[in-house]
Amino acid sequence: MNHKQGAIHFVANNNLKFEDGPKPLFVRPSSAAPVQKKNEEQKQPSREEVRALLDVPEIKDRCADLLSRYPEPQGALLEVLWLVQGVLGWVPTEGIRWAAEVCSCAPAHALGVATFYTMYNHAPKGKFLLQFCRNISCAIKGAQPLIKYIENKLGIKSGETTPDGLFTILQVECLGSCGNGPMMLVNDDFATDVVDGQLKMKRGTTLTEESIDRIVEWCKAHANNVPKRDVLGGIVKGHMGHPNAPGATAKPQVADYAPPSPVLNVKAEADETGASLTWKGAPEFTKLVVEKKNGSNWEVVGEPSVKDKCFVDATGKVGDTYRMIATSGERVAKPSLEAVATQKPVPEEKAV
Amino acid sequence: MAECVKVCTENFGKGAQDIEVYKKLGGYENISERLFNMSQFEVIDYVQRSNLRGRGGAGFPTGMKWSFVPRNSGKPVYIVVNADEGEGGTFKDHYLMMEDPHRLIEGLIIAGWALGSRSAYIYVRGEFLPCIETLNKALNQAYAAGYLGENICGTKFSFDIFVHRGAGAYICGEETALINSLEGQKGQPRLKPPFPAVSGAWKSPTCVNNVETIMALPWIFKHEPEEYAKLGTPRAGGTKVFCISGDVKNPGVYEAPLGTPMMTMINDYAGGVVGGNLKAVLPGGSSCAPLTAEECAVATMDYECLASMKTMFGSGAMIVINDTHNMAELLNVLGNFYSHESCGQCTPCREGTGLIHRILNQIVEGKGHDGDVEFMQSLSNGFGGVTICPLSVSLGGPVSSYTTKFRSDFDELIAKNPDRAKPRVQETSRPGIFW
């Protein structure tokens, strides 16, 4: 793998840590709803521990598949970070460094990306991450009382984890299910209730205190076998990857895969000065030919420039039939639809 | 309520996630000789004639957007589907992808043919893992059936679709931020120009379209484009998938022609207002100006009418609010949201949204002061045109319209503070800011 050697070396000598910096001058009032804690004091696993879990054939295959999708390896960074989170449950510093190595980018860049997006956890979370929407549609339907209810029920505040490590509560922004608001995400499942032993979000149902009770009970019952899902939603087989990706087998798009464009929307209008033609042209035209019908034959009457907007045939009169043929590079397009010249409307005289 | 032609929600509830069912319902019929005999220019002209406008929020004509993509630039062209649906009140893409993933794939193949694209990316927000699973399942079926991959259906055209999982940033719904995120960077918007149609992802021409825009294409190609244009208003063709949420009896996703009166949407489709009388409606998601009950009575749901009422059509996400709610409290929710989601590039947005949020927080807690509303208005007036993307305006617009239209709600909360006339105590050690 091609690393940017200088960058790796530079960061390798700087021990990246998520430590609290100097106390900020400006502290937001505590009334602001808590967001995910990023700088929580956390024991970081060692390089060896992380690599033992990540440098396995299965993960390496997934990474190779991801890297083949983007013209530059850095494009896969978000997805590789997801893989790290899928294996470890969170993204420790060493996991970020591993992702940076896979994607051939500077670890500092990967750290910036991992901390920008809110869904990467920078500390271990409970087995069940309960994310409550607090955005406007859910707020209208009473999300805050429900969030208070679950906080009291579990005895923790938003952003905290229960001592038994089972639940973490988070308040998040719109979860894209406003029709069911208020609603929640249990790990990756949208849920408003438990139906037949499954978390479900059925149309027309909303979260209530009773359904929260049922969901919490369901979670407790599944504490030892948490449903595990693929963080990237499964593998797609059969794609050829991106043609510019490192080691790609895919070929770039053939330039002339589609037939050349004909001239569209040809209109002919005639008066005593001749017939004038207008048309709509594609940018790839290199040559245009105007033909007029003479009996059963077509006669070339002119070759307008591709930049022209109008062509005048001085001998044309009402009832003549025209068509246009375009050439794109070396390929000749099919002729345009036939256009019969109509009487040109006499422009209204302007009032003086 | 007249029965309306269904374009995007045609296959809802019919199990169209499976390719066999989808094909039985008429799916993938467009991927045939008819499309393969059309040139790129003809396809784009077809879309232009249908009068289809982008369904993501800005409402830019799709055919015109495609015609800006330079051909023969020597670089690959990318199509990116924006499924980073995070605007408060919008949830149509979630349902569209869950119910009919193959329609999105079919639409993408048409778009790929029109633009000469080799690779398309569907950027799905991180929270929608069930959607990603559905899409991946559908992609596997489409690859197996030969609709994707090298030399589709025996032509020289090759096309691949990749799903990209985002990781939770509302701002990635902005097209340049989305492109940055696709490139594996922080999702911060880029300065325009250059526009993505000329220089987008990996400096190649890139077309970013909403899920619903792409999903309208199969219907347009199956019928005549003029037929689609006829469904809507003269300046915007077709039907729209509306998401109605808030204080209505049956919130949900409804497809209706553009230009449907707003009260028809609320009363006939969503079953009417519950819990009180109608107070306000946000017609296009959380970042648009609210309409009062009197304005709602005359409003129709289309781009022009709502623009003339100084709000916007946006993504067609109607949020209905009844009179038991205080608008200041709802604006506080929005202040919290936008200050949290500001990417931090531009100072007016980073500092301004946070400052407005803190003022609103104090007003809601009963610690508001006289002059707070005027101060917020002056702040929001300073947002326009000084930031890279319109996120700050998305809060600034609501601040000025909520405070103008529902001033009494704010005064009512400020009146709870007995010391409201006293000057504010400086609450920070940062010099220069009195907050």
Structure, explained:
The complex is a heterodimer of chains A (352) and B (435). With 352 residues, chain A is of the alpha+beta class. Chain A has 3 domains: 5-116, no CATH class; 128-221, Glutaredoxin (3-Layer(aba) Sandwich); 264-342, Immunoglobulins (Immunoglobulin-like), CATH 2.60.40. Chain A has helices at residues 5-12, 47-54, 57-67, 77-88, 93-102, 107-116, 136-140, 143-154, 209-221; strands at 128-133, 167-172, 184-186, 189-191, 193-195, 198-200, 264-271, 274-280, 287-294, 297-302, 310-313, 321-328, 331-332, 339-340, 342-343. The radius of gyration of chain A is 33 Å and the shape is elongated. Chain B is an alpha/beta fold. Chain B folds into 3 domains: 19-231, 3-Layer(aba) Sandwich (Rossmann fold); 239-322, Ubiquitin-like (UB roll) (Roll); 327-414, NADH-ubiquinone oxidoreductase 51kDa subunit, iron-sulphur binding domain (de novo design (two linked rop proteins), Up-down Bundle). Chain B has a 5-stranded mixed β-sheet with strand order 6-5-11-8-9. In chain B, β8 (278-282) and β9 form a beta hairpin. In chain B, α6 packs across α9 (211-222), α15 packs antiparallel against α16 (372-381) and α17 (391-405) crosses α18. Chain B is globular and about 80 Å long. Chain B starts with 18 loop residues before the first helix and ends in a 21-residue tail after the last helix. The model of chain B is unreliable at 431-435 (pLDDT under 50). Chains A and B meet through α4, α6 and α7 of A and α3, α7, β3, β5 and β11 of B.
Low-confidence regions of chain A: 1-40
Strand fraction of chain B equals: 5-15%
CATH topology-level fold name of the largest domain in chain B: Rossmann fold
Give the tally of structural domains of chain B.
Answer: 3
CATH homologous superfamily of the largest domain in chain B? NADH-ubiquinone oxidoreductase 51kDa subunit
Mean pLDDT of chain B: 91
Structural class by secondary-structure content of chain B: alpha/beta
Poorly predicted tracts of residues of chain B: 431-435
Determine the N-to-C terminus distance of chain A. Answer: 79 Å
Oligomerization state: heterodimer
Dominant shape of chain A: elongated
> Helix count of chain A, per DSSP?
9
Number of domains of chain A: 3
Q: Helix share of residues of chain A? A: 25-40%
